[in-house]
Amino acid sequence: MLVNILKKYLSPVKYLSSVNIITTGAGAVVGIINARLLGPEALGVVGIIFGIYGVTSNFIDIRLVDIVGKLYYRTEIDTTFDGKQYRASVIQIYFLATSMLAVLIWAVYFFVTSWFVGYFTEAHVKAAWIAMSAFYFSLNYIISAMQYQQRFSEKFYLIGTWRLLGYFAGLLVFLPILFSKPNLDGYFFASLMSTSLSAVVTVALSLFIWKKHEGFQLMNGKFLDALPDYIQEVRLILWGNLLGYTKLLHRGSDILLVGFFADDRITGLYKIARTFADSTFIFYDSLNQVYYPRLMQLLSSNAVSEYRHLAVKILVNSGLLVGGILLVEWIGLKYLIVLILTDKFQGAEPSIMILTSTLFFTMGVHLWLWPIFIHSGQLGLFTGYSIAAGLLQYLIVILAFQFWTSNSAAAALGYLGYYLFLIPIMWYLAKKIKPEIFVTTQRKKNKGLSKR
Fold first, then answer.
1. 252 shares its domain with 349
2. Same domain as 359, residue 289
3. What does the alpha-carbon distance between residue 404 and residue 392 come to, in Å, rounded to a whole number?
4. Residue ranges making up the domain that contains 371
5. Cβ proximity of 245 and 387 under 8 Å
6. pLDDT tens across 363-418, in order?
7. 348: Cβ–Cβ under 8 A, 6 or more apart, which residues?
8. Residues 51 and 193 in one domain
9. 4: how many CB neighbours lie within 10 A of its CB?
10. Residue 277 near residue 352, CB atoms below 8 Å
11. Given pLDDT bands bounded at 50, 70 and 90, which one contains residue 442?
């Protein structure tokens, strides 16, 4: 009944965007509460701990996520091919591998953080904080994997509704604990408890979708049917894993770089800037959940015209949306920062706007270029250029900190430089792989006439 009403008034993208806006808005409020209760110095410590996780996880995560989409939409002309059973095997192998990696992440993260955290902050970091953070990150790793799998069912209204309910259930656990103990002890314990509840909800929803709606037979004698194909894609896994190290530089350890060159306050300002800017990525997440399966389907069926039309639509709408967000930030951000975070966080405004601008590259361009690389399996050159972009980002930050100024805006400029370097190259490489997507029908006709 509720789903039918939602379908009548909201498309899947609009509904998921609404859900993400609500949860992100609530998350922003929670972030403000965290900032006010903890202050920039303690927030800087949180940023360091999260940054170390970004480094650790990238060395352990073998990037199966890139293979799952390709295998799930595998087409087979063999009449003996059982597509439903094969898809069930694809997601089960992914879940089992994710669960094992989550355990490994906990152990490695705990020991690495215990050993290295003192290099990035002068604050005393308790072992209990590290242990609770390790559980928090491991559970989130599983949650992300399950949420990624859910999108293939295309039950977007069901997914969005339960994600909304699960998020607010987590807040009902998080906030009372934090208010009762408004310090880092309370913060890490509250994070662990709320994430545990979210993990239960997410896994239960995934099992419900695959058994009830998709009719998958789980954990039977054929649950490893797709394993040979996972092994066959080992080259793509290796390139994807190497690409993960670039993301480690770009989004994982960038805050550690700030922490190494600057004090906890500057690190806290960069952390809050990342939090504000990352909140705008709700739109990317909504579009990616809906359009990634669709784009992969179009590539599998070689529907070039439809793919091009959808890419242009994404590109134009993303430009308009990001332009509007930046205009609002330019007008009101300086007042909003003081109003909700007090004058302790003044100075974060430029870095917030710089980081927000990168949404255009991820949502408007990367979203529809990336499936081309995954479908073709050609990640080699792209991975190499991604590493170069990550190194360029760090070079910009280091030079800016050494010869210009040590502030959060300098780090944000390095972050932007990553995209300004990589996206044009990504476009060029994708055009070489699938040139027909970048050539309109009219241009093809003109070329044909010129040959005559």
1. yes
2. yes
3. 17
4. 244-445
5. yes
6. 999 999 988 988 887 777 777 888 888 889 889 888 888 877 667 888 888 889 99
7. 269, 270, 272, 273, 276, 337, 408
8. yes
9. 8
10. yes
11. very low
Where residue 263 falls (left for φ over 0; alpha for ψ -120 to 50; beta otherwise) is beta
Q: Do 169 and 257 sit in the same domain of this protein?
A: no
Co-location of 179 and 90 in the same domain: yes
Distance CA 193, CA 209 (A): 25
Same domain (yes/no): 214, 344: no
Q: What is the dihedral of CA 172, 176, 179, 184, to 10 degrees?
A: -80
The rounded Cα 280 to chain-centroid distance in angstroms is 12
Which residues are CB-contacts of 76 (< 8 A; sequence separation ≥ 6)?
83, 86
What count of other Cβ atoms lies within 10 Å of the Cβ of residue 25?
A: 12
Residue 237 lies in a domain: no
Task: Give 450's pLDDT tier (boundaries 50, 70, 90).
Answer: very low
Residue 238 lies in a domain: no
Return d(Cα 60, Cα 68) in angstroms, integer.
Answer: 17
- Hey, what are 51's tokens? 């940054």
Strands (E), 390-431: none
Please tell me the distance from the alpha carbon of residue 137 to that of residue 109, in angstroms, as a whole number.
9
Query: Tens digit of pLDDT for each residue in 208-242?
Result: 888 887 778 777 767 777 888 887 777 666 666 66
| Total domains, the chain | 2
**Does residue 36 contact residue 341 with C-beta atoms inside 8 Å?**
yes
Q: What is the DSSP string of 197-235?
A: HHHHHHHHHHHHIIIIIS---TTSTTTTTTHHHHHHTHH
Identity of the amino acid at 365: V
The DSSP 8-state label assigned to residue 361 in this structure reads I
- Tokens representing residue 417 in the block: 């430089």
CB 121 within 8 A of CB 259: yes
Structural tokens at position 382: 């792209």
Rounded to whole angstroms, the Cα distance separating 264 from 123 reads 9
Q: Is the dihedral of CA 134, 135, 139, 140 positive or negative?
A: negative
**Does the pLDDT at position 81 exceed 70?**
no
Q: Based on the number of CB atoms within 10 Å of its own CB, is 214 exposed (0-12), middle (13-18) or buried (19 or more)?
A: middle
Check if the beta carbon of residue 85 is closer than 8 Å to that of residue 217: yes
Same domain, 218 and 298: no
Q: Structure tokens of 17?
A: 């965007």
Residue range 153-161: mean pLDDT, rounded:
84
- The Cα 373–Cα 382 span in angstroms is 8
Clarify whether residues 383 and 415 are in a common domain.
yes
Q: How many CB atoms lie within 10 A of CB 183?
A: 11
Last residue of a domain, one of 232, 254, 282: 232
